[in-house]
């Protein structure tokens, strides 16, 4: 009888511990989990099994790996929030799979994303013919964002500044030099990009800036 109550106590304790860990990790849908999130979930499942099965060891001692995992996850999330480079390394970057009805097989190969996956996700978006697609972007979560061809097709707007760091790819898309961009900032009275949360050029060549709070 004692073993049964011990098992019940440990199971309930693990349930509470995992609930707290997930709650502190923040809100995210299952389909939007990053690779780091999946690693954490798998390890938590393993630790949970050990915590319940190893009745001959201290329960608090077995919960320690969960606490360490939570701290590591919160630390990586904090670093990702502060550094776009770390965020890109941990989560990756969105990839353009279809542009103006043309499939980029090279990018698909680089992402290890096969044609069957593409066709399935196009059908899920209500698309039968990929030639109807103006733009299809494979997000870091694995979800495919699809934009159909219209009279006013969507524009690819690459951010020029993210979290106070200059994005050279955005300048390349605009065929703009850094000197010209900094001149535009000075015309807006901005002299330090570290204070900018995000900046991008709109379809009408108007510069949009959002400052850090």
UniProtKB/TrEMBL annotation:
GO cellular component, as recorded: plasma membrane
UniProt similarity note: Belongs to the UPF0702 family.
InterPro entries registered for this protein in UniProt: DUF421, UPF0702_alpha/beta_dom_sf
Protein's recorded name: Uncharacterized membrane protein YcaP, DUF421 family
Membrane topology designation: Multi-pass membrane protein
Subcellular location: Cell membrane
Record-annotated YetF C-terminal domain positions: 82-201
Keywords associated with the record: Cell membrane, Membrane, Transmembrane, Transmembrane helix
Domain of life: Bacteria
């Amino acid at each position: 009888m004692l073993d049964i109550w011990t098992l019940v106590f440990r199971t309930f304790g693990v349930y509470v511990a995992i609930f707290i860990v997930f709650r502190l990790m923040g809100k995210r849908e299952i389909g939007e989990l990053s690779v780091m999130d999946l690693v954490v979930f798998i390890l938590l499942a393993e630790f949970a099994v050990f915590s319940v099965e190893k009745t001959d060891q201290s329960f608090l001692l077995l919960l320690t790996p969960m606490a360490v995992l939570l701290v590591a996850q919160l630390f990586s999330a904090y670093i990702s929030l502060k550094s776009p480079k770390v965020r890109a390394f941990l989560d990756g970057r969105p990839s353009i799979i279809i542009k103006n009805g043309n499939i980029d097989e090279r990018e698909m190969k680089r992402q290890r994303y096969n044609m069957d996956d593409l066709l399935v996700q196009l059908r899920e978006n209500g698309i039968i013919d990929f030639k109807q697609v103006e733009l299809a972007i494979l997000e870091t979560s694995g979800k495919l964002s699809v934009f159909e061809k219209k009279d006013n097709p969507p524009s690819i707007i690459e951010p020029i500044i993210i979290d106070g760091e200059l994005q050279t790819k955005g300048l390349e898309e605009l065929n703009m030099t850094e000197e010209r961009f900094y001149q535009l900032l000075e015309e807006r009275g901005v002299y330090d990009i570290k204070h900018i949360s995000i900046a991008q050029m709109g379809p009408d060549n108007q510069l949009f800036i959002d400052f850090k709070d």
